[in-house]
Design brief:
The complex is a heterodimer. Helices cover 31% and strands 23% of the residues of chain A. Chain A is globular and about 65 Å long. In chain A, helix 4 crosses helix 6. In chain A, the strands form two sheets. Chain A has an eight-stranded mixed beta sheet, with helices on both faces. A four-stranded antiparallel beta sheet of chain A has the order 2-1-4-5. Chain A has a single domain, classed as Rossmann fold, CATH 3.40.50. By secondary structure, chain A is of the alpha/beta class. In chain A, 42% of the residues are buried. By secondary structure, chain B is of the alpha/beta class. The radius of gyration of chain B is 20 Å and the shape is globular. The chains are: A alpha/beta, B alpha/beta. At the A-B interface, helix 7, helix 8 and helix 10 of A face helix 7 and helix 8 of B.
Chain lengths: 326, 315
Amino acid sequence: MSFSPVISFDNITKKFSVRKGVKTQYVHALRNIYLDVFPKEIISIVGESGSGKTTLLRVLSRIYLEDNGSIKFKGEIIPKKFKKNKELKFRQEIQMIFQDPFSSLNPVKRVYQILKRPLELHKFEQVNQRIRDVLEEVELTPVENFINKYPHELSGGQRQRVVIARAIVTKPSVILADEPTSMLDVSIRAGIMKLMLKIRDDLDTTIIHVTHDLAAARYISDRIAVMYAGMIMEEGTADEVVLDPLHPYTKLLRKAAPDPDKVTSEKLGNTGEVPDLINPPKGCPFEPRCQFAMERCKNWLPPYFQVDNRKVRCFLYEKPPTNTEF
Amino acid sequence: MLLEVKNLNAGYRSNNKIVKAVKNVSFIVEEDDFLGIAGESGCGKSTLLFSILKLLKKPGEIFGGEIIYKGENILKMDKEELRKKRWVEFSLVTQSAMNALNPVFKVKDQIMDVIFEHSNYSKSEAIGMVEKVLHMVGIQKERMNSYPHQLSGGMKQRVAIAMALIFSPSLVVMDEPTTSLDVVVQRSIMEQIDEIRRENRFSIIFVTHDISLLFELSKRIAIMYAGEIVEIGPTKAVYSHPLHPYTEGLINSFPRLTATSKEYRGIPGRIPDLSKEIEGCPFKERCPYRKDLCDKKPEFKEITSGRWVACHFPR
């Protein structure tokens, strides 16, 4: 892509300290993250629990601060400590959608108040009109039926729509969505997914979507980044990553994902366990489980290798790919 | 026939309000069967499962019906008869089974507790059984001396499954056994369960809301909606040609991992309130093919061999 990224992670590292008796140990939640996110794209961060995908979102939204590296937003490094007015502007530009719509809405506030508060904080004008507009955008129509409801009067899908309305009400340029459909019933997930696609098209928003569901990621996103043990292992267009995974971990994830259309019945067998993030392996974190592991994978962290338009953190792709099988 | 559920009605009673969570459900489980029960939250699938084993606790209540297991009605059995059958004839694995392990006992002691409660095996025989069953679920025998906190979530769930298999029961009932686990672990446990089932030829009733997983792995599938089974049949046939509009809607509700067609729709509306009496077909409010006749309750009938559906206008 020729235009410049809206967000770019440059060598981000995040550790959390855990006390074990008198010793302090560190959980390496994010290690050497490089990722560019381009305007108006939907990028999905896919990974299992503990892979650091939520931490990545939280570092970007300044819930956590990175230990090393820097994040650029529209070309400027996001400071660790904001000047007051800068912070307000930043928070207006980057909004979040959380996993659980049952706990992310204040139960004693009506929909109207939930949507009014961000507008007041960010000093928007024509508040009432703006609230009606966003409710229409998230398809909670007729607006009169919803605007004075309390969250408990709404179904799960409707609540998540209110959460999305709250996120877009300040006209952000980036939305961070942390598993927005995983708490919802299957039959209403499609509606929320389609709404996110519609918002991107209507409002030109960039969406960073975190999920563990490879099929959902393929459906919604332009690109997918696969995380494992705090690192991005593979990054490419959604169809490429899912249909023709390169990294051995992505291959495993693809084989494990439920797929009723599957034709072969290839067994996974024993796949080992996720590494301990307190003492992560010195080399590639996937090496202990990898069937293609080589000697150097034990001791060296693979850098990104470019394969066509994709980036893969695996020594298998060190040479330009040829027709021979590895 | 291993198990026959006949006109089962169950639900919850509170403050003069009755919630009918399972309504007139009838189905059979054959020997060597893998029946998946799919449905969204609140459709009564867990209530059905717990009723089958007569484990439904207050305020839950079985209002009527029969559950015939190997010719005997489970609902008529008293506590002592049931106690003898549990673990030996049929067992249960729950979603939180891994948290049900007692934190202060070693894995082997917990499994042996089940063995001694239900048999007269000696200690050394029991240890042999524990080793064998742990091996079956893919846990090294050295691990039987571990405490639950020393095991990962996946291993704890494997221990819970091992415990359910210790007496090679004929029926294992599983309530979302892999829901709290990661996809890779989930897949490897499911593969193992299916392998053990094929080798030992027992039957599984498997309940989950992960419908794509169920469509991939089960032999037969039952689709529940608002407390009723609306369709039941061989999984492959149901997937390729669903008869009930709700089944069709569900199949179009999950994004495809590999298929090129990206039809992905969802179902508009929400499930009906189970505390109110529903007139006619429970799905009519959300059904795209609704006709006048749908105000009358459709009968649950066999359309072709092995395929049952409750719809006036099967697809």
